[in-house]
Amino acid sequence: MKSFDQDRFGFAQTHLLAAKKTAQQAAKRQKQMWYSYVPTRKEVATLKFEQLAPMLTGWMCNSVMELIPSRMQIAQVIEILLKRPDATVFSPLLRMCENYVHGA
Questions:
Q1: What DSSP letter does each residue of 44-76 carry, written as one string?
Q2: Do 18 and 66 contact (CB within 8 A), yes or no?
Q3: Of 21, 36, 50, 52, which sees the most CB atoms within 10 A?
Q4: Which residues pair with 35 in a beta bridge?
Q5: 15-29 average pLDDT score
Q6: What is the pLDDT of residues 52-75, one digit of tens each?
Q7: How many other CB atoms are there within 10 angstroms of residue 100's CB atom?
């Protein structure tokens, strides 16, 4: 069993593998690139803004169907980001996450 830090917000390994396959198949058929990566809780807690921003944006805005995040999952991302000592750096991401959670 994975540690809490390595958890990808509740997605099972089978979902992650299926999403990767879907994204690869879609890339062959069309120009649209679909995102098939969900950051770990540890990545959300430790990565720099420049590394984390594209991960979260890709997950929220361009995920394959298997990985579309729920509002609850993004609320958990917000909770982790707000606990960071450098949380103010993440203001743009936090706003985007808040808009996602509240349907804006």
A1: HHHS-HHHHHHHHHHHHHHB-GGGPPPHHHHHH
A2: yes
A3: 36
A4: 63
A5: 72
A6: 999 999 999 988 888 889 999 999
A7: 20
